[in-house]
Each structure stands twice: as C-alpha cells, then as structure tokens.
Amino acid sequence: MSATRPLREAIVDLDAIASNVSTIAARVAPAGVIAVVKANAYGHGAVPVARAALAGGASRLGVADLDEAHELRDAGIDAPILAWLHDPVADFAPAIARGIEIGVSSLDQLERVAQASDAATDAAAPAAPARVHLKIDTGLSRNGVAPEEWPAVVARAADLEAEGRLVVVGVFSHFANTSREVDAAQLAAFERALAAADAAGLRPALRHLASSEQALRDPSSRYDAVRIGIGMYGLTPFGDGTTSADLGLTPAMTLRARVVAVRRVPGDTGVSYGHLWRTDRPTTLVLVPIGYADGMPRHATGSGAEVLVGGQRRPIVGRVAMDQVVVDVGDQAVEIGDEVVVFGDPATGAPSADELAEAAGTIGYEIVTRVGARVARTHVGEAGGAVAPSGDVAPGGVDA
Ligand SMILES: *Cc1c(COP(=O)(O)O)cnc(C)c1O
User: Fold this and answer.
1) Do 291 and 321 meet the contact criterion of CB atoms below 8 Å apart?
2) Distance, CA of 85 to CA of 64 (rounded, Å)
3) Do the annotations mark residue 319 as ligand-binding?
4) Phi, psi (5° rounding) for residue 17?
5) Is residue 273 annotated as part of the catalytic site, yes or no?
6) Which of 14, 52, 331, 391 gets the highest tally of CB atoms within 10 A of its CB?
7) Has the keyword Isomerase been applied to this entry (predicted)?
8) Does 253 carry a binding-site annotation?
9) Residue with CA closest to ligand 1 atom 12
10) Cα(228) to centroid of ligand 1, in Å?
11) What does the alpha-carbon distance between residue 392 and residue 211 come to, in Å, rounded to a whole number?
C-alpha cells in the first residue's frame, strides 16, 4: 500500500499498553502495578512503553539489568524503578545515586550494595541510602536468596537499615508457573520468609510475588503489588487456551510488511529451501520480507501459521528463510507493495502473536521479544506522550 511506510515495521500502540495496565490495575487493586519493561519492554521499546504504563496507572517499573534502569533514568523517567538481575561485578553506586531500587539475591550482594550505598551517601547523592528489595527463592531455583541463607540476610539487612546504610523497601519472589499445588507451596514459603523478615525487625512496605499469570487468577498472590509483563503487552500468560481477548487485553504490537514479489505458478511447483512444500494446483505465491532474522520462527515452517493479506488469512508455505517467507494466496488478487500483517490484534482479523507462538511451539513472549533489529519500530497513540523529561530526580516515598 503506502510506499512511505518502512518495508518491515513493528507498530506499537501505546494506548493499548496504557489501557491494558489500567484494566489490570483495576482487577488487582488495592495491590499496585509494577510494569515490567525489561528486554526493551519485551521488544516494544522501553522508554515509550514505560511512559505509557505509568500513564495507565503503574506506580513502579521493573527491569532485569541496571543498564535497563539507567536507560529509563537517562530518558528522564523519575518513577521508582526496581532492577533484580546483576552482573557479578556490577557497580551499584551510580544506580543508588539515581534512586534505582536494587533487588538483592545473596548476602554478598547485600554487603556490596551497603558499601556502594556508603559511597553514594559520602558523595551526597540525594537518593542515598540504597533502597533494596530482598528476593527470596520460593521454589524457582533461579535468582533469589536460598531459604537456608534467608535468616542471615534479613538479620544483616535489619542491622544495615538500623545503621541508616540502606532501606528495605520490599521483599519479593517469583513463581515457577507450574501448578496450583506448586503455587500454594511457593506462597507458603513466601509467608515464612515474610515472617522471618518481620521477626528480624524489617517492615517492608512492598511485598510482591505475582507476575501476570497469578496476578490475573489468584487474589491471594497479590500482596502489595504485582509485577506485570506479558499482560501489559496484551498477550496471554496462560498456556491453557485462555486468550488475551478473554482477559480483556489488547495486543499492543502489530508486525507488518509489504509484499515484495508476486508470482503465478503451476501445480506441482516446489517452494522455498528443500522444496518442503509443493503447490497442488495453479496458485499465486507472494513473497513477504519477514524471515527468522526478523522474528518469524524457523519452527513455524510447515505449521499452518497464517498471515493477513488484503483482509484474508493466508498460509505461510515452505521453509521459513532468514529474510523472507512465501505465502500462498490462491486466486486472490495481490500486488507488489500490498500490506501483509504477520501478527497483531485478532479483533482486526490478524493472527495474534500468541497464535503464531502456538504454531511454532513457543510462547508469545518469545515472538515479541525476538522481532529483529532491521524491523522499524513505530509508536502510535497518545499515552505517556505528555510526560516531559524531568531529569535525574530521585523517587520519593513508597507509593505502590
Ligand atoms: C519477567 C518477570 C516478570 C514479568 O512476568 P510476566 O509473566 O511477563 O508478567 C515478573 N517478575 C520477574 C522477576 C520477572 O523476571
């Protein structure tokens, strides 16, 4: 269609992000929403998405790495930010100076944060001392303080807090998304960890455990805040067929491209690498310049995955290549330059990222985070656009 649009484009609707956050915030209230914008906001663009999420009612942002938190501060976002996955040699002092809250997963990290906090205090950083969230491993066996180490960590944290060297803002953990039984066991482990923290004299204002899946289904998991990633992007956290539409959520990302070639071929024509697929009739093939380098999984080969061409759902045929896929449009009239929607909001007739994920044997999270670097990102919508950059201001009190 329009030749002014990029050849390949991921369009991110910031109003959909804000509206998904506000839908989830209403559902989980009085718990607050920590909007998870790690991995470039699941491929959607960290800074604009963070602003839209705050406009939609999130009170805090969550990221994995400190670098991701610094990127948000660099853009002038002054909301509270929590980062929880650290380089073993991370320098915490600059993060503390900027009021970036630090997830702590070991005694060693706690000591290093305290030292960095002292340095930030000596440098008269307005945001010092450090604000930390202690993370307990309740059964994911990944990040987080091991249960046997927890009493030592909370005791030391209480001492450091009493000395004014840091503030324990939160205690948190993460579910393994396994089963109701495992969820219940993790919740019980979290309760024990909270009791131990309380016995040590800690009064964390923010207890948080749930991500999208439990936040949407299990009120007992919500505590003071929930950490929402996938739901905010309008994709489903559930593997049981519950769609984002069932949850009242709208996919924010649309991946589109323009047809670059159209060819009429006879029956029994081999298509793409290895001729894994052959035409069984005369048909029209169109070439779409989205391959596995752009986020179309190679595992979608032969899966029946479809794209939207001129309002019609049409199958990808033959091997998914690095730069392109072939789509069989039958006798439909398609021209070079016509728009193809690879995934988007199913309400428009397009397949969803969740549907493509299902076909390729993966999850929607992986589809959106792996949209490739040569795909242009375009942000549309008003949400968060009015938020002016406001410099390196440290966040104030706990408000989630
Ligand atoms: C990624 C992540 C989340 C968000 O999970 P979703 O399933 O996308 O809601 C929450 N908490 C932690 C610790 C995470 O790593």
Assistant:
1) yes
2) 5
3) no
4) -60, -50
5) yes
6) 52
7) yes
8) no
9) 174
10) 6
11) 28
Measure 331 CA to ligand 1 centroid, in angstroms: 45
For strand 206-208 and strand 166-172, is the pairing parallel, antiparallel, or unpaired?
Answer: parallel
Residues contacting ligand 1 via CB (< 6 Å):
36, 38, 84, 174, 211-213, 227-231, 237
Q: Which listed residue (38, 42, 223, 233) is catalytic?
A: 38
Task: Locate 114 and state its tokens.
Answer: 């305290």
C-beta separation of 190 from 145 below 8 A: no
DSSP 271-327: ESGGG-EE-SSSEEEEEE---GGGT--GGGTTTT-EEEETTEEEEEES---SS-EEE
- Give the Cα separation of 181 and 166 in Å (integer): 36
Q: Which of these, 317, 230, 251, lies nearest to 279 by C-alpha position?
A: 317
pLDDT per residue of the chain (400 residues) written in tens, 0 to 9:
455 789 999 999 999 999 999 999 999 999 999 999 999 999 999 999 999 999 999 999 999 999 999 999 999 999 999 999 999 999 999 999 999 999 999 999 999 999 999 999 999 988 989 999 999 999 999 999 999 999 999 999 999 999 999 999 999 999 998 888 999 999 999 999 999 999 999 999 999 999 999 999 999 999 999 999 999 999 999 999 999 999 999 999 999 999 999 999 999 999 999 999 999 999 999 999 999 999 999 999 999 999 999 999 999 999 999 999 999 999 999 999 999 999 999 999 999 999 999 999 999 999 999 999 999 999 999 888 743 333 333 333 333 2
Residues with Cβ within 8 Å of residue 188, at least 6 apart in sequence: none
Architecture of domain 15-232 in CATH? Alpha-Beta Barrel (3.20)
**Ligand 1 midpoint to CA 248 (Å):** 20
The CA 66 to ligand 1 mean position distance, Å, reads 16
Q: Where are the domains of the chain?
A: 15-232, 253-351
In single-letter form, the type of residue at position 68 comes to E
Q: Which numbered atom of ligand 1 lies nearest the CA of 232?
A: 9
Please say if 38 is a catalytic residue. Answer: yes
- How big is the chain by its Cα radius of gyration, in Å? 24
